[in-house]
Amino acid sequence: MTAAGYVERAGLAVAAPLAEFVEEEALPGSGVAAEAFWQGFAALHGHFTPINRALLARRDNLQAQIDEWHRANPEAGSGAPEAFLREIGYLVPEPAPFRIGTVGVDPEIAEIAGPQLVVPVLNARFLLNAANARWGSLYDALYGTDALDGQVPPTGPYDATRGARVVAAARHFLEAACPLAEGCWADWQGGAPALADPSQLRGMRGPDLLLASNGLHIELIVDRNHPIGAAHPAGLADVRLESALSTIVDLEDSVAAVDAEDKVAAYRNWLGLMQGTLEASFTKGGRTMTRRLEGDREWTATDGSDLTLKGRALLLVRNVGHLMTTPAVLLPDGSEAFEGLCDAAITCLAAMHDRGRNSATGAIYIVKPKMHGPDECAFANDLFDAVEDMLGLPRHTVKIGVMDEERRTSANLAACIHAVRDRIFFINTGFLDRTGDEIHTSMLAGPVLPKERIKQATWIAAYEARNVQVGLACGFAGRAQIGKGMWAAPDRMQAMLEQKVAHPNSGASTAWVPSPTAATLHAMHYHQVSVAEAQAARMGETPAPLADLLTVPLLGDETLSNETIAHELDTNLQAILGYVVRWVEQGVGCSKVPDLADVGLMEDRATLRIASQHVGNWLLHGLVGEREVDAALARMAAKVDAQNFGDPAYLPMAGREDRSPAYRAARALVMQACEQPSGYTEPLLHAWRQRAKAS
């Protein structure tokens, strides 16, 4: 008998809302019959569930062996040695030199270097903003942020002095990106300019010009009737940059999706993007506005032919990892289905509605996070083979992005790439998740350094370098992306401009940014730096030593002051509470969360993982005690309450610690940090969010 709220489909119990969505929204127009889909879906779970379970057991077994080594060698003062890690199979032999065979990849991935956004799938308005972030106003980005001088923009009416400085900064950008054959852009009076490199002029549209450098386009919008254009000798009213070339639509770390209702909402938004029908209405300034996907941009090329440029970012979708299960689907034995299997089938089904609106090559781009080692990458490859067969898709239609964010993956990166060599389109680094796994893997080795000092530790430099070096050695140049992680502070754009240029200089072809505005500003770096040249300069480098990568960031014999320990504890616990309270109580998986110094940071579960593991490590090794943690939690709860004052949906934690699901979840994350699988926060977060929803 099927459980209440579920319907039977091919021997599975499927939550009624999910079955209805699949049958009435996702399947019509896909060419896939309902019976065939459900039979294939059930077969998918039947075949891959035991393999998935075995892979998770393998994770646990390896961790248990590493823990036991540390118990047997308490005086080692280091991580488990390389020879031991090879003996237990944590490290595998390097594959013979090879080059990836991925084909049919869009130019935004294979050929053009530029910014990448990540956006939570459950927020339709944010989704549309991110999809439409392919183009952004450089004038607006400079005027509206601290990018010019480190100062926040003035409130009130337009500041002509600041506006003049913006126009001058944009002119300097043009001088560097598209220099004139003679003179400078300050002398330009309009019309087609004589460029030092004539090929940089790509098209015209009336008085507007289309330029390009390093594969990225620049629009010069000429309007002498515009307030800005009227003050410019050529009538230049705006400079618009091709900005977010791609956007990851996220079903994982930035969302709180804990049941069938949440999963259907996520799948429906992804389907709407693929069909081009997604809309979001909101009120601004007393008026109701509706946001939709932007259309393409039409130009006349310099040879007189029509030239169409995409108006939207290329959309990728991040499925969940291998760990979590979902109550949206129950297996014949009554257990929950693996969420990653559901995501693979349903996000690919939805992507079949693309019809070239998104991918010109017909590719489906799935970013796969939190995979540990080559066997788990091979599992994902086999899964996507099966999904392609199930949906009648040609082999390797589904491309895979491997997030290099787990220690066993970065230590075996070439072997991981080899396991998905014919469908891989992306590797990237992520400091937060990678550090969370670094701490958890060597939890028993000793206390770790304070978080900020971990960023300067030996292993992190090796990690960042090896990601590029191994990717280039495997043939990623001109074929796949090498990515770098997020800039988390959306209000600190001057600092981003100063620091994030390091990413293209490293040979990375993309890097994450927290907003469309940040994408426009970061795009300037890809005009400043030729990533193709940076990669060519690094081609053939010997990867940083594996021994450096395996060096655990331990405190050793160093003694920290009481003030340093207290500050680190407060910093971690404030971050945990500030994020968890929105996740558990409001279902917000990603938002700008004020830190201890009231600086807004874009936070997702990766932040929570590193913070909870860090406190758990110091608890385990006695740098802090349970009483100190509880006192700091109570103190930081009051801080977070004050930071959320004025939010009508917010429920304070201070004074009701024993009744606040968010507070209790935060405490559990810290006190049970050592027991969480790979240090992940999802199991506890999901349980507490489900309680909060039920109440």
From TrEMBL:
One cellular component term from this protein's GO annotations in UniProt: cytosol
Lineage: Bacteria, Pseudomonadati, Pseudomonadota, Alphaproteobacteria, Sphingomonadales
Keyword rRNA processing (UniProt): no
Name of this protein: Malate synthase G
Gene name linked to the record: glcB
GO molecular function: magnesium ion binding; malate synthase activity
Chief location: cytoplasm
Binding site for Mg(2+): 405, 433
Function recorded in the entry: Involved in the glycolate utilization. Catalyzes the condensation and subsequent hydrolysis of acetyl-coenzyme A (acetyl-CoA) and glyoxylate to form malate and CoA.
